[in-house]
């Protein structure tokens, strides 16, 4: 019995039966017919839609027409330089703008175009992005060390240098902020000390203000103070007359500046850059941080050549630039006064600057005195960095006599063991 059961089980076929295969054939046939019917209904609906459009006179949607691609307009290096100067005024675009400026200077700066390049670079250095952008600092240093400063030296075979005397001095003054100031942002002792020594040489070469310049600066400060007092008095009179604050025009000024700043500069394929829009796109706080000499580069002009036309600065302007760039670097050096590896060099430099503070304007003299007093106060309060002598302690010692000896920071366990406690 069991043998017959095993034989019957082994004789069973593996797969679908004949009836199941018949049902499968019917199912596939019906599916095919349904898909065919759906296609016919869709075609009929399309014909009906076309007939409906014809009856209602509705125009069929036109096929998209591909616009002809215009050929790029060839630009001169001066036009490209003007666009780069505009882009460099935006902090987010500053690193990329410096990369393009390095390539443009390397390929297209010649004896005929060097004046335009110096004017554009001077306008870029007038903004604080050149020293405040961490991503842009290495590119600014690369621009000066690889493209500009080598051209200030004599040419091959002792020939004349690429730049003239005033142009060479102008580039070297810009290098105070572009190279020496930017190299201060480091934790490398050698690089910091080298930059500090270069700035000391710049400080020793500074020329004092003339009496006429000092009187002009004092008059300007007094005039600004009087204008501020008049504004305050006018505002107080308006509040007293109306019982509420008078409308102030300067409140809406930041909004206008913000709108102009949000506008993106024209694309690379447009015409010459509008310098008026680019100068208005700068934030108010950035304009306040610019140097006085840098404002002369902010003049707007409709043409790229007129915008970047080179005008040689006078000796007084060069001296003012040198003094302002050194003072800006001095504010950065002041932040390193708490670093143990830079404290001695910073204190020595500020001591020299304080003794010769008459080289600077009255406002700058007040700031230098404030810095020096802060350094002296910190030096008195700070801990001694030298070795302790015999009988000296870094912290005051409390004498408990009969109980135990301990210090403010010492180990009470050691003191207890000495007295057998």
UniProtKB/TrEMBL annotation:
Q: Which domain of life is it from?
A: Eukaryota
Ranges annotated as biased composition (Acidic residues): 218-227
Q: Where is the composition biased (Basic and acidic residues)?
A: 228-238, 247-261
Q: Where is this region: Disordered?
A: 218-296
Name assigned to this protein: Uncharacterized protein
Q: Which organism is it from?
A: Vitrella brassicaformis (strain CCMP3155)
């Amino acid at each position: 019995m069991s043998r017959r059961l095993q034989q019957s089980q082994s004789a069973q076929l593996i797969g679908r039966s004949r009836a199941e295969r018949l049902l499968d054939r019917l199912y596939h046939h019906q599916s095919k017919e349904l898909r065919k019917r759906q296609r016919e209904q869709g075609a009929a609906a399309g014909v009906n839609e076309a007939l409906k459009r014809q009856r209602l006179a509705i125009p069929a949607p036109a096929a998209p027409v591909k616009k002809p691609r215009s050929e790029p307009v060839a630009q001169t290096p001066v036009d490209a330089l003007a666009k780069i100067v505009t882009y460099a005024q935006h902090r987010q675009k500053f690193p990329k703008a410096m990369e393009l400026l390095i390539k443009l200077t390397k390929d297209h700066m010649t004896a005929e175009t060097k004046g335009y390049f110096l004017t554009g670079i001077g306008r870029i250095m007038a903004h604080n992005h050149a020293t405040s952008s961490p991503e842009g600092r290495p590119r600014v240093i690369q621009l000066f060390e690889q493209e500009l400063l080598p051209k200030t030296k004599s040419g091959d075979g002792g020939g004349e240098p690429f730049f003239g005397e005033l142009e060479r001095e102008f580039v070297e003054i810009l290098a105070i902020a572009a190279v020496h100031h930017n190299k201060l942002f480091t934790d490398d002792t050698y690089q910091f000390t080298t930059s500090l020594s270069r700035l000391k040489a710049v400080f020793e070469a500074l020329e004092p203000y003339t009496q006429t310049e000092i009187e002009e600066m004092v008059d300007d400060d007094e005039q600004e103070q009087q204008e501020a007092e008049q504004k305050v008095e006018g505002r107080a009179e308006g509040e007293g007359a109306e019982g509420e604050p008078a409308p102030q025009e300067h409140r809406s000024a930041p909004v206008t500046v913000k709108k102009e700043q949000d506008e993106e500069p024209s694309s690379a394929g447009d015409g010459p850059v509008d310098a008026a829009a680019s100068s208005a796109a700068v934030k108010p706080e950035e304009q306040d941080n610019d140097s006085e000499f840098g404002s002369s580069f902010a003049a707007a002009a409709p043409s790229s050549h007129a915008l970047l036309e080179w005008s040689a600065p006078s000796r007084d302007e060069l001296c003012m630039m040198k003094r302002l760039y050194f003072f800006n670097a001095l504010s950065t050096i002041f932040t390193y006064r708490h670093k143990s590896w830079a404290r001695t060099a910073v204190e020595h430099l500020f001591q020299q600057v304080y003794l010769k503070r008459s080289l600077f304007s009255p406002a700058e003299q007040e700031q230098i005195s404030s810095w020096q007093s802060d350094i002296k106060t910190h030096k008195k309060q700070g801990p001694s960095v030298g070795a302790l002598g015999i009988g000296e302690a870094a912290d005051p010692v409390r004498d408990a006599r009969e109980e135990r000896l301990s210090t403010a920071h010492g180990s009470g366990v050691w003191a207890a063991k000495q007295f057998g406690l």
